[in-house]
Amino acid sequence: MSVRPLMFFGTTNIDLCFSVERLPTPGESLMGTLTRNPGGKAANQAVAAARLGLKPHFYTRLGDDEAGHSLLQSLREAGVRADAIKICAGEISGSAMVMVGDDGSNMIVIDPGANLNVTPDMIEGAAQFIEPDAIVVAEMGMPIGAVNRLFEMKCEKGFKLIFNPAPVRPGLSSAAWRSVDFVTPNQAEAFELTGIEVYDFNSAAHAAMRLVDLGPSAALITLGAQGVYYADAETSFALRAFPVKVIDTTAAGDAFNGAFAASLAQRLPLREAVRKALAVASLCVTRRGAQSSMPSAEAVDEFLKSQTILELE
């Protein structure tokens, strides 16, 4: 059976990553080690899918600066199809300041740069790269008008839509919500969207059904080290996370989303797709960085062979 086409829409940043013993408190100065790495939510997701053997298209907007050209080259080297990516004269590329403590926790501040200049017309232009029967993945880093326009095109183009609602912002239309096939927030995002605090699988169940009430066909809520909860109008299940030693949680959610989309594109059954996405996220947090932490298909296969996972009905 053929692999379905896959395309990602969203942000790309250059990450300025500080490794510190622990995260600082307000007003405190700490010593740390600085590295520069390619990042950005959608870029990370596209790279996660490419590392699993897919050849995803990606639309993003980069500045005509050193960072932009470096980020574009990095995406191409990872196997991401860059035909739709725009290098924009007079603009600066997005950047993020990331602090990662020795326990794997992080703090992130983002300057969107060129990412904020995406317009609905630009999304329409990029839509030419959405192939028939494609899976499209979008996050909320682009301007809301651009996100709404992409979602409106679902009926026109006939794609399956995965929506990672981060960072959560108001303005998504009711029609846009109804176009979503899978919405994939983490605990904090689920709370922002539903008002339900998610701290375990039981509370995730309540939040997931509230999310489905907003319009999406299905909701997947990631709960970090606990695992993931899935629900649609007819079925629900929870999968516990794989136990691993956490080094850096940066881009764990992006790893999950990219792998989930890739697994659906490979036509894996739903629960198997969620399980594989959990495995990719688990391997991601055992390594430092964002795109550099995305595992290969071979590494994921070996990891899954050595693991068992408990499913909770």
Order of helices and strands: EEEHEEHEEEHEHEHEHHEEEHHHE
* Biggest sheet layout: 9 strands, mixed
Q: Give the number of DSSP strands.
A: 15
Strand order, sheet with most strands:
4-1-9-10-11-12-13-14-15
The helix-and-strand class reads alpha/beta
**Global Rg:** 18 Å
Helix content: 25-40%
Full CATH superfamily name: Ribokinase
State the domain count. 1
CATH C-level class is Alpha Beta
Instruction: Please name the CATH topology.
Output: UDP-N-acetylmuramoyl-L-alanine:D-glutamate ligase
* Shape by Cα distribution: globular
Please report the number of helical segments: 10
Instruction: Tell me, rounded to a whole number, the average pLDDT.
Output: 93
Task: Provide a brief overview of the structure.
By secondary structure, the chain is of the alpha/beta class. The protein is built from ten helices and 15 strands.
